[in-house]
Amino acid sequence: MHPLYFPQINNSGEIMLILVKYMFVLAGFLYMLYAVLITKQVSIMSKTLGTTNSTQNKVLAFVHLVIAILVLIYYLLVL
């Protein structure tokens, strides 16, 4: 098997480190899903209730989504 997915474990400290790494990746994925839901909700809200800030809200939600994706990519590459 590939060592990235099943690394050699020598002691309990390494087990904890691996668990923490996978938990960070899982948390990053869940946060990205949350950002997708927020973006969808802002889009629906803007269609239902148009205000002068609708464009700013959409841009802010999209920036939030991009940052969440970048954080997930960072977690996958670094951890």
Write up what this structure looks like:
This protein has 79 residues and is mainly α. The chain has a domain of 48 residues. 78% of the residues lie in helices and 0% in strands. The chain has 2 helices and no strands. Helix 1 packs antiparallel against helix 2. The protein is rod-shaped. The chain starts with 11 loop residues before the first helix and ends with a helix.
Question: Would you tell me the structural class of the helices and strands?
Answer: mainly alpha
How many β-strand stretches?
0
Mean pLDDT value:
86
Largest sheet: none
What share of residues is helical? over 70%
User: How large, in whole angstroms, is the Cα Rg?
Assistant: 18 Å
**How widely separated are the two ends?**
19 Å
Number of helices: 2
| SSE ordering | HH
Can you tell me the residue ranges where pLDDT is under 50 for at least 5 consecutive residues? none
Query: How much strand?
Result: under 5%
Q: What overall form do the CA principal axes indicate?
A: rod-shaped
Sequence-ordered SSE layout with sheet pairings:
Elements: H1 12-48, H2 54-78
Helix pairs in contact: 1-2
